[in-house]
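ok here's the first one, seq then struct tokens
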Amino acid sequence: MTTDLNKSPENETPVVSADYPSTDAKGSGPLHWVVAAGGLATVASTFLAWTYTSEFPGNLTVNGYPGGLQVLTLVAGLLVTLFALSGLGIKGLRWLTPAGSSKALRFLALGAFGTTWYTVLAIAVQLGGLAHLEPGGFVAAVASLIPLAAFALPDDTRTPSKPRELPSWAEILLLVVAFAIGMYAVTYGISTEYGELFIGYLILAGLGSAGLSKSGLVARISAIASKNRQIAAIAAFAAAAAFPFTQTTDTFTVIAVNILIFATVALGLNVVVGLAGLLDLGYVAFLGVGAYTAALVSGSTASAFDIQLPFWATVVIGAFVALIFGVVIGAPTLRLHGDYLAIVTLGFGEIFRITVNNMDGDNGPQITNGPNGIPNIPALNIFGYDFGETHNFLGLELSTYASYYLLMLLVMVFVVVVFSRAQDSRIGRAWVAIREDETAATAMGINGFRVKLIAFALGATLAGVAGTVQAHFQGTVLPEMYIFAGPVAPNSAFLLAAVILGGMGTIRGPLLGAALLFLIPEKLAFLKDYQLLAFGLALILLMRFRPEGLIPNKRAQLEFHENDDKLDVPEQRVSAESGVGTAKAGA
């Protein structure tokens, strides 16, 4: 196997023409072996006891059986070993690093180091000193330092060559395995039983995901998914639908339902913020409009109206009322721009909360019961299927929360289809044009006010749909559930953060951002008064090092890194060096 190493005059990055080089002229082979040995040593250390007492959660006292945080270190060590061997060109593993191994190994080595040292330090802090560590803990700490030799590896980043064509059945099998692994990783994060394990999971998941992305493996699997779009969509839906059947209790299913509600609303806000570029700080009010509308017409004993409509009618009415509110609020305000629009939308959110809080019969008409809200909202009943009862499906028990989970999954699919269709439509292109440069878009004949009002109305409608399900799932609606900011999602601040954190203008970005922003405060509850401090620091660090979001679109990534010598994606780096693709695009 031959390689062709050339120096780029702009950034001194070696360009490798071969798809899978084993070594380079700077002697990366020995260093790869060192990193691989460090990964194996890290794996071996997890089979030793790290502490002698079971007071630290996870039972790290057993020799020969990894437990708790040791499992995360085990996974990190295995990843380091496999990717180091792939960098050596070991047959059967070369497909792991189509874009190079050095950058991927640096992140994976940091993941192994961070997870291990976090565990060792947590044991020492919680139990009162290093004396509570068994020799295995010190062995693990030293072993996890060895893979950091990856930082001495020369940069072998390369443009991935066209992969070998696989049979259709092999590509489908690969997608199924990838979705199964991804679903297992998400399920593991949701079901972490204590805060220390969740923090270790975040460290490994964050750095591990960065490593997989740098290796080019994620891009290659994404390309296969794009080629088999329908199969990929079915596999993703099947993996998500299987989640409630893997749970023995309803604890994590409830969390999953709330994440889906939050993610659905975030995707609706993404229409307004991500596509049209409008800063909306009161978006949670539209969720509240849908929820209160559903509560009033669903037969609640506390409702001011003696009405009990079927669910399909409730959804239509909730979405329509939210649409009306979106138009009524948007029509007089969307001629404003920037900060002025943000202030007006923030005011609308507060007006909604105060209004429903005052409709108690004393300060206003008796409609919403004021601060007491509307309780006793009955469980959904769709064509005779009672969501308040347990059902059996093909021999599997389907609890009431699992039923709501599957319903919200269908709602999520509906919202994703609406978003993707709108994004690729003529009006979607107009939104993007308005977002990039409203003056230029107007000069090209786009009616800025009309297309912005459509975005505002569509976003409000999608939030109203989610609100109708939320009302039945929660069983009650309260004014305090729809505030601008607070420690519990969803609220307007968290919704906006989910869109920006995940990646504006994308579908997967807000879904991932919403899941993280719901899970992190939930899992950091053990920090008590320092919960929001840790949460805020995490957001600051992420926005500092990943301002374009976790899953950005290519335009945003190029705009944020147009002055960088080395962009994350080799194809984008080439475009930047040639002066192509770094300018803002219009519609």
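and now the second one, same deal
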Amino acid sequence: MPNKRSGGGLSATQQAAKFLGVSVLSGAVLAGIALPAFGALGLAAKGSVESFDELPANLKTPPLSQRTTILDAKGSQIATVYSRDRTVVDLKDISPYMQKAIVAIEDSRFYQHGAIDLKGVLRALNKNVQSSGVAEGASTLTQQYVKNVFIEEAGDDPTKVAQATQQTIGRKIKELKYAIQVEEELGKKKILENYLNITFFGEQAYGVEAASQRYFSTHAKDLTLPQAALLAGIVQSPSRYDPVNDETEATKRRNTVLQRMAEVGDISEAEAAKAQKAPLGLKVTQPKNGCITAVRGASFFCKYVERVFLSDPVFGKTKEARAKLWNQGGLTIRTTLDPQAQKSVQDSLKDHVYKSDKVAAAATLVEPGTGKILGMGQSKPYGYGKNETEYNYSVNASMGGSNFGFPTGSTFKPFVAAAAIEEGRPANQTYAAPYEMQYPATVQTCSGKPWQNDGNYKLENESESEKGPYDLQTAMAKSVNTYFVQMLEDIGMCPVVKMTDSLGVVQGNGDKVPEVPSSMTLGSTGLSPLTMASAYAAFASRGMYCTPVAIESITQTANGKKKSLEVPKSTCSRAMSEKTADTINTLLSGVIDSGTGQQAGLSGRANAGKTGTTDSRKNAWFVGYTPNLSGAVWVGSATQKVQMTNIYIGGVYHSQVYGGDTPGPIWRDAMNGALEGKDAPNFNLVYIPSSNKDRDDDNDDGDDNNNGNDDGFIGGLTDGGTSDGGSSSTGGDTSTNFGNLFQGNSNGNGNGGGRG
């Protein structure tokens, strides 16, 4: 308790302290109003506050952080994201009741005084002296606005926020000087507008428009008298007067505001009495912030857009600059996402794979010739609960995906074929392709140092009936392992490296595909669906590869002005000749017509594609395309722990999962829906003379090309036995070496995909 004399007054020491406070503050006020060049104020301890003259002349007003709206290609909203939920509005779009209410309760003499209300200061000081505490404040709306500017500039930095709100004479002096400047430059109406847009109203709502939406699901211009009084009352203490959590306290505060409005003549006593009897009438809209709220299952695409923004130098030279721009918000981002394609992707995934299944599925659709991502989804929803995930299985690790991507199996083989054709091999190239064979003793690499099969490793085809000789067309349709390994031995690995580089094919961790036969033919390396869909899109566009792109345009609104921001553009370049692409299109059309991908085939339009499964059936793929749409579908274990044998997926039992029977139908249905009503152009197919004898043998799905060993065989084929994409080991099973993310990559180990 304070030390008081018997008469109830303050002690002599306390009176002196209070007098000193009055003198200091009055001196600051007078210095600011009467003598701006008054010089040093001689305040308190040396260095505790700058002299009035030494303060910067202009208040730096940062653009108010606002919500960012992410739209699809048709202009419909996908999601809103924000660090602070705010929508800036003009004063004319704020209810007159709201304008009067906030002035009445916070600064009733706002239109009579200047930047500082001397009468209010002296009244407050006197009242505080009498109460021996802080019973009344004296900050004007202008000063409060300046304080909020300091807080806004501090952002989410707790240290800076503390500095912006600390109760020191130094901060008050700074606040006073800037208030004078603001009054001179802006005028009363603009100050009121700025204040109502910057201040915090609780429940994550910044500014009166967001508060109106949050508490009453209405616009600020439509606020009624009781609603306006409630919002005005919240400002003093958003937590104490929160109407959502304490209706009684909020009602008392609202009625206090109404009474004050009557006292200053803004409304009549009768109007105040009537409004005080009205219920609060809340119609709360829950905050909808972030990609988790995205429509049509587009949460993962939304996060991808955010990652692009935060990583691309076009939005700022440094990571910090890009983050600042993103957090500032006020952006309208129009993306490439096609609502029809996105709905089709999600519907297909939902139909074929349950979120509760032991395995997951991801699908991505890309437009050939532009690189535009039209659809992106997966079977497990975005979230943090059971059967949910925050990892985007469709993209690389840097964009929120798995550590390494997922082994692709035989979907890698078209890259080998394209490289061979570019090297001049005929489209009907024939190899012996026995059922079983040793890997070549050596295979040439780009470095000039050959890869050597120093372990006498062998591989085999899926079925003993698969034994050559085969030509390329038959080998592609049946997905014959030994054929493509012999092709790799013939041309060497460097042409394949050149081809994959030109197609943007990198591992999920961003590294290049390693120069080992298992990676270069059997797809043992982890890649992402977006990488595969974009690479295959180059076949569809007759050899032109376009880097994937997700953003069409961005408009930024700041300080009431709109401007367009530069956005990343797709870069298109020739990856192969038109003839090579046309040949691959002819080959992969055969995979769907009569090969392993028959269950994925589309009716009524030209289409091509390739199946793939990996060791122990931990991954199954279908990657395919039409001339105007490319898509990749992966099904498998995110942690690479689940073998897809004797398993239910989407309520359907599978003794063994193949690329054609599980991801294939997902691709088919997603493509059918995405392309409904769209043009159906044809490929430029080429004639490929057959050099194979007719064969009657067939198999269930030749894409499951077994290397003959599921217990780590291929691990020994990698350069140094890489088992987890980054550390050296002796090969073998790495199924428990996950860390806390996905393995998904083997660079050739037995878990990565020795099968086609």
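notes on #2: The longest strand covers residues 551-558. The longest helix spans residues 12-33.
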